[in-house]
Structure formats: C-alpha cells, structure tokens
C-alpha cells in the first residue's frame, strides 16, 4: 500500500478518492495489527482528503464510521462522542429528523454514552432512535428490534430488570415476525431474555429460553461454535443451580424432621422419667 501511495499522489493530486481509500486501507491494516493510534492517524488523513474533494455534508452522509469506531476502541469516548454529534448535526441538516440514518447515529451516540456510564443519556438516545424507526420503518423492522435490545441493555445495567426483560421480549417479537423463528437474531433474543430471567431468580423460565436458543444455534452453527458452547454453558449452569437449590431444600426438610424427632424423643424420655419415680424425686427435692 505504501508503494501505491506515491503513484496515487502523483496522478490524483492529494484529493482524489483513490488516495483517501489508500490511506483508509492502511488504517484498516494497522488496526488489524493492534496499532490503533497509527490507524486513527491514517483515517484522519483520509478524512481530510475526502473533506477537500467531496464537501463536508456529502462526505459525512457517506463516510464509513471507521474514525469514530477507532476513537471508541482506543478509549477516546469524548472524541468519539464529539464526532458522532457532528455527524448527527450534518445528517439532520441534509436529511431531516425522520430518516433511518439519523436513528442510526442516535443509537451510536447511545453506545458511547453507555461506555461513559451515562445510562440515562444512553437510554434517551436509544429512545429517540426507536421513535424515528417506528415512524419510518414500521414496527416489524429488524432495526426496531435492535433499538429495543439497546434499551434493554441499558435498563439491565441500571438494575431495572423488569424493564429490560420487557424490551428484550419486544425485540424477540419483532425478530420472530420479521426474520422467522429460526433466525440467528432470534436466538440472540432468547439468550438475552434467558440471562435477564436468571438474574431475576426465575431459573425454570430462564432454562426454557436458553434451551430455545440452543435449539436454533446447534443445527445452525454446530456444537463446537463458541455461541453454541456459551448457550450450553448456561443450560448446564442453570441445571446445577436448580440441583443445588433442590438439595438445600431437602436438607432443610430433613433438618426440620430431625429436630421434630429429637423433640419427640426428648419428650418421651421425660415421660418415662416421670413415670419411673420422677415425681417422687421432685417431691423429695421440694422437702429439702
């Protein structure tokens, strides 16, 4: 790629899409090598060239989110948030407030705010995204399900488990309708619902959801796939939890019966003692 760059520079004079793409590709390679700072620099160079060549609004409407994602991945949440807000302002200006791309940007801002522990702010952005998607895409669109999922994740982090469960169930309903009951995204919904139910102590219901998740993933991905193994792990963990609770319950019942038997034996011993002269012994003690 470095060998190609001088040729691109010579023929396209710094501002062509080819040069920008070359910088961008170099950034992708550096990112795959773990050099996020170097990758970010290359994407910034690509951005500068595209800004010169294409104009600001047109660019932002079509610009891949590479630079934004890199800011996010290297922990520069403030930088990522600033870029997303800039993109949002330009997209609103060019497309209006009721456009799917605006909803996507709201969701992206929500993710960054979530990473910054601003859960109220994140939830607000996901709600704004959902409102737009419901209006322009309809209630049975997969993007609507994703926004429900996003809201559920934030609510779960806020320990609002009932609210999170409700959103996950809404996402499941949309995905089942839009994608079919055996789709991979439907399995994701079952997985999230199962985890939410587990955290609420509803182990039997949780087990059923993970079993439904497994019923989709096993034939689709095979037993050795990480997502299938993750699901199997949950099923086994819940069964172990149920077994442990059942053993504890039986132990408590046995302990109650033991105490009852012990009390009964103690009472019988007292009766025998009383019959075998205990009363006379007690009278004699009273005379002393």
Automatic annotation (TrEMBL):
Record PROSITE patterns: TPR
Domain of life (superkingdom): Eukaryota
Pfam families, per database record: TPR_10, TPR_12
The TPR repeat ranges on this chain: 20-53, 145-178
SMART domains: TPR
Keywords: Repeat, TPR repeat
Protein name: Hydra magnipapillata
Lineage: Eukaryota, Sar, Stramenopiles, Ochrophyta, Bacillariophyta
């Amino acid at each position: 790629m470095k060998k190609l760059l001088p040729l691109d520079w010579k023929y396209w004079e710094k501002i062509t899409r080819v040069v920008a793409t070359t910088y961008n590709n170099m950034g992708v390679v550096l990112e795959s090598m773990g050099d996020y700072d170097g990758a970010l620099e290359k994407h910034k160079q690509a951005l500068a060239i595209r800004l010169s060549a294409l104009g600001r609004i047109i660019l932002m409407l079509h610009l891949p989110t590479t630079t934004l994602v890199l800011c996010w991945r290297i922990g520069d949440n403030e930088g990522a948030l600033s870029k997303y807000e800039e993109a949002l302002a330009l997209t609103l200006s060019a497309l209006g407030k009721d456009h799917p791309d605006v909803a996507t940007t709201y969701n992206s801002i929500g993710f960054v705010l979530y990473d910054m522990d601003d859960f109220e702010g994140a939830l607000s952005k996901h709600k704004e995204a959902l409102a737009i998607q419901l209006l322009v895409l309809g209630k049975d669109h997969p993007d609507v399900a994703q926004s429900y999922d996003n809201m559920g994740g934030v609510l779960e982090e806020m320990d609002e488990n009932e609210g999170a469960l409700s959103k996950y169930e809404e996402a499941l309903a949309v995905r089942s309708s839009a994608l079919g009951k055996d789709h991979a995204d439907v399995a994701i919904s079952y997985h999230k619902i199962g985890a939410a139910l587990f955290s609420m102590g509803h182990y039997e219901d949780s087990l059923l959801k993970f079993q439904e998740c497994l019923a989709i993933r096993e034939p689709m991905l095979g037993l050795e796939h990480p997502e299938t193994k993750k699901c199997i792990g949950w099923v086994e963990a819940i069964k172990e939890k149920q077994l442990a609770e059942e053993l504890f319950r039986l132990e408590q019942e046995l302990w109650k019966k033991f105490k009852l038997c012990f009390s009964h034996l103690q009472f019988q011993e007292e009766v025998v003692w009383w019959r075998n002269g205990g009363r006379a012994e007690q009278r004699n003690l009273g005379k002393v």
